[in-house]
Amino acid sequence: MKKNLLFCFALLFAGVLSVNAQREEWNAGPFKHLSLGIGAGTAGIDIELATTLGNHFQLRAGVSALPFTYTGEFELDNDLLFDAINEAPNPGLIKDELRNKGIDLDNMPDEAELDAELGLMNGKVLLDIYPFKKATFRITAGAYFGKDKLINVEGHLPNEIVEAAGIISQYGGEYTPGIHLGENFIGANELGNVDAFVKINKVKPYVGIGFGRAVPKHRLGLDFDLGVMFHGTPKIDSSNGNISDALNDELESSGLTDILEEITIYPVMSLRLVGRIF
Questions:
Q1: Which pTM value belongs to this model?
Q2: Of 33, 59, 49, nearest to 218 (Cα)?
């Protein structure tokens, strides 16, 4: 009986020593500890390294990536094609040539299938500020930096459209094939390739709040972020340089451009599992 009690007290004492040893290991001084965090959120998959800078500060650096591709149909304005034929010096010759090529003007494709890619891939450097020494609530400031193309659209126009553009040009007409993106006309190059993207800032300041410590006092912990990334006013551009205002006043705009002008921030919410390496 006494031996059992002594054994229990020994285990209890050893446990207390172990806890005290863990507490003594913790030192919030600059660069005394390093942790690894892996998680996910609205900015994509998160991988971070973090270190201590004192009781009230921690520094994080990492990458976030959200790869996403989508194949969709984009509108072609065939009225521009017909106008170009009718306004050319020899519209009859153009129509005869099109028929000889097997191109039916009454059944021209009015959509182009293009690939759209979301370009959320960023590095980041963030500073966590803890107003209270023992609390896990924090204020975070820093920046994301990386790709300046939020959305990239590319593909090839239907062969009938490209062939018609070449014939119109051959007979002295003027016609630039392309797609409509919101109120913007995206022209294709001479091969019929379309390239357009929604451009944002490469450096995106970040502010937010969070709970948890990126460098946990124990070996494992949870870390939560809620904030906003300021990516600036998105602009539609193209490597082809064929961007202009809509050429047809009667074109029904999707309103995309107006929406983009109002979206200058990107919400960031993420949850990570963090583990202290040392």
A1: 0.69
A2: 33
Helix (H, G, I), strand (E, B) or coil at 19: helix
Tell me the one-letter amino acid at 37.
Answer: G
Amino acid at 181: L
- Euclidean distance between CA atoms 208 and 206, whole angstroms: 7
Contact between 217 and 191 under an 8 Å Cβ cutoff? The reply is no
What amino acid is encoded at 104 in this protein?
A: D
The CATH number fitting domain 29-276, selected from 1.10.260, 2.40.160, 3.40.720, 2.40.50: 2.40.160
Q: How confident is the model at residue 189 (pLDDT cuts 50, 70, 90)?
A: confident
Distance from C-alpha of 278 to C-alpha of 266, rounded to nearest angstrom: 34
For the chain, the distance separating the N- and C-terminal CA atoms, rounded to the nearest angstrom, is 42
Higher per-residue pLDDT: 148 or 239: 148
Q: Give the pair of three-digit tokens for residue 189.
A: 């190059």
Q: Give the residue from 212, 235, 234 showing the smallest Cα distance to 223.
A: 212
Q: Which two tokens stand for residue 278?
A: 């040392």
Q: Where do the DSSP E strands lie in 42-136?
A: 44-54, 57-75, 111-129
